[in-house]
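INFO batch 0412 | record 1 of 1 | parsing
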Amino acid sequence: MAKSIVSYDSSLMRFFRYIKLDSIAWSLRRLYCPVKENDLVLEIGSGASPYFRSNILCDAFEGENFHRQNRSLVADRPFVLGFAENLPFKDDSFDFIIASHVLEHSDNPVKFITEIQRVSKAGYIEVPDAFMERLTGYPEHTLEITDKNSELIIRKKNDRIQDKELENLFHNKSRFIMPELFSKYPFNFHVRLYWSRDSGGIKYKILNPNLKKKWDKVHKNTERMKERRRFRSFVNSHALKIIRMLFSQNKRNKKIDLLNLLQCPKCQGTNFELKTNNAQCYRCKTNIKVRIN
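INFO prediction complete | emitting tokens
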């Protein structure tokens, strides 16, 4: 079972950060997870590029969509379709949970944080920092998040673009140089939080908890951007597929009893029957979309 987390980053990541090559250290973060070999790891919002150490994947969307920039879902290990705010798993099913670039999409951050702590004993959260969010203005994100003293500081956005004047100023002159800056100093423009129950769980504060979202998520995308992404995605996906084959726990993942980990999000039943690509709850007949490799 998961113990207190001692080392957050691999020695190789720390080395590259020491010699001021943060971009390389950043790219290596998906190769490392501070867990034991036998720990069971869930990744939510796994999308098109899951972490290598994840044993089970969970995502709210099966087809291509704006959340993963129109890239195809990867389900190369046990996969469950579900939302982070109502996870279809039993309490304490996992030793570690990965939530990378998911929380900022949530309409209910309290429920999100409650659920990931319900199903797991420890985990990792990664989101764009509020400063980066305010500058770039991602219309599909609902939250601005930063951290202070290991506490998440969360602000609900009051519109698709939180500060339209700032975003206009940013796009006027700076948007062409900022991607290079983001790439060179990725740790400075993201929030990375490792948490565990042993260290008190996830500490967070919502600055405007009573704000109700009154706008729809919209993704700004052009056909030209789509074409570029299709090419990059084709190259990256094939390279990552090979890397995942080398670094993922493929043999172990195939033996996982996925049905034994499920809990019905509707009636909280824990007995399921596998029917084609669905796990059906015996109690209320609710179907949960699954893929068992």
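INFO post-check: The first helix runs from residue 11 to 18.
INFO record closed
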